[in-house]
Amino acid sequence: MNSAWALLRLASPQLPIGGYSYSQGLEMAVEHAIVTDPQTAGRWIGDQLLLNLARFEAPL
């Protein structure tokens, strides 16, 4: 494993520490009433998976 790959893995929010503290801004979305029910939560999570994680985290 080269050093760039190791650094990307270390920076990943999928690590146990990051996985519990990294939420893609869900708390802010709830606080600002963007996420208000199960439907908007599902849309929020789907958008995060499709638009953010699919392009950065998932390919790793």
TrEMBL record:
Superkingdom of the source species: Bacteria
Entry protein name: Urease accessory protein UreF
Organism of provenance: Pseudomonas syringae pv. actinidiae ICMP 18807
